[in-house]
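Thread title: Can someone regenerate the structure for this chain?

I was given the following input by a collaborator and told the matching structure tokens would be attached. They weren't. Posting the sequence so someone can regenerate them.
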Amino acid sequence: MSLLARELSDMWVLATRSVKRIARQPDLLVGYTVQPLMFVLLFVYVFGGAISTPGVRYVDYLIPGIVVQSITFGGFVTALGLSEDLKKGLMDRFRSLPMSRSAVVTGRTFADISTNMIQLVVMLAVGLAVGFRFDTDVPTILGGIGLLLLIGYAFSWVFAFIGLAASSPEASNAYGFTILFPLTFVSSAFVPVGSMPSWLQPVARHNPFTIMVNAIRRLFIGTPAGNDVWLAVLWSLAITILFATLAIWRYRRVVAH
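Best answer:
Regenerated them for you:
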């Protein structure tokens, strides 16, 4: 078997392990379903009447932002899983096996694609139930779904690095949400950038979350977005390359000690 084939085989085995772990711990699905549902209901029915989005119904403005936020946090299971494996000493067992070292991390992030698909189905179903409607053709909508999965995969690597760098599963969860949560709110995900204080608008406008949300709005409801679709792709690829490099480097450093 070639080196590439062995790498892919190891990655597939560990990805399957990660997916089965979620099936055995259904409470993990709460983060994929209940929390996003609460955000949708809260913003649509509590804050929606107070937020002005000229030319676009607030529910149509909101759902792409909520979906992007939720998909970026989909990798928290990877952070928890990697940190937990480190804490339990499972990484030492992996090191003793004739397997690819990087497959431990790549398998985890690959498994996130399947869970992100589940989350995406739930989120769009909830959005349609509360009044969200697509306003573009089917190929464009499918392009938006593909971009969302790419964004989710990119941030799975962010969480993978956090999980390997944190001292405990609890710390990895806290670091991930503390770092990323403010970034999602200082963006166009929930309110127009123009409604923010003047000193905050440049930060929000150049925030990669704003670019990603604008891109999904363009693909789902046809709002103008300039070059944001391509910029969102570039941001996602850049984040993937950077944090995949950092996560694999961190993993190899951890197992070497």
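The chain has one domain: 3-256.
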